[in-house]
Amino acid sequence: MNTQQPRVIIIGAGFGGLFAARALTNQPVDVLLIDRSNFHTFTPLLYQVATCALDPSEIAYPVRTIFRKDRNIRALLGTVTDIDYTNKRVAVENGRQLLEEPYDYLILATGSVPTYFGQDVFREHALELRTLSDAIALRNHILSLFEQATWIEDDTAREAMTTIVVVGGGPTGLETAGAIYELYNHVLNREYLHRNLQARVVLVEMQPHLLAPYPEQLQQAALEQLRSLGVEVMLGTPVQTVDENQVVLADGTVIPTYTLVWAAGVKGSPLAEMLDLPLQRGARLPILPTTEVPDRHGVYAVGDMTYLEDESGQPYPMLIPVAQQQGELAAKNILAEIGGGEQRPFHYNDRGSMATIGRRRAVAWIYNKIQLRGYIAWLAWLALHLVTLLGFRNRLNVFVNWVWNYFTYDRSVRIILEQGRREAVKSEK
Question: CA angle at residue 241 from 239 to 244, to 5 degrees?
């Protein structure tokens, strides 16, 4: 490390932290990128790992490989346990040692975590889909239950084993529900002929519509496409309670199931609490338009963990493009301060949103003006995610797998690494 240059510590190697680090490459600063994993995860495709369409390695890319040619950027595998913003030091647990890392500037980019709205019973029984470990655990769980269902004689128990409830009508919920339905009813059932198993997939959303930020026409298109695929959609009905055998909705509906996938919402990373500042709704850390944290000079925060209102007074959404653009801006504003220049405020360049529902089914809202649905939207979704995936090998492998899966309905990554019981899932948390 060159001690003559300012030191920037970035906590989190997600999209916000990655774009911040990229903006600081070959600049007159020393950068330390800290994360609990040694890889960056392309989270939009986690559901495809969970549903056996992709191998975990195809959506992960080593952090050190990303920056192997950038001499001013180093990586540290560890968990941040404390932030001393007064003395500008970060405590990091690195295996069997505790490191104290000094900084001149700090960028927080630790994203979000699932929220259960204060209901611990949901946390106890639900399966998450936020990390690569979550995706593998969900894959193990659903495959194990399908194996058990082929041999059990009790019809009621067998139906519960092949019933999946997905909570949340956002893109993650739609994509997961559609992919699970296709996995069960178009792939697995061809290999378990002596039982002729048919899975039931139920999507539950407490709002009266899916995809809340989307125009009404696309909301309706998404609903129609889900139902045409075979997914049951229950709108305007929140989950009342859940146990290991069933999900009970607020209207009294009881769904026997051993699988509850939670995609109903997120809140800011708990790391924000280390700055001793009041948080906004959703446990999000308030930031200035420059992405600097108020009353914490030299500390910047980006992405899902932050709260910043746009010109209309609404908080910016917890989306990957927001994190990317804020991460890049935070880095540029740090460089501006070092060089005596003027810092710029954040202006979100909204290129739109899209969600895939299954094969040849998707909706897209391009630049919040152009509405696409069906096959064209699906192709647009495939192209966007393919070009934004890190690493040529990963892009090639994903493309080949997508083509193969499309023509063969074969998902060969059906490997149960351990017992997919809920207890095993929880042990990974």
Answer: 115
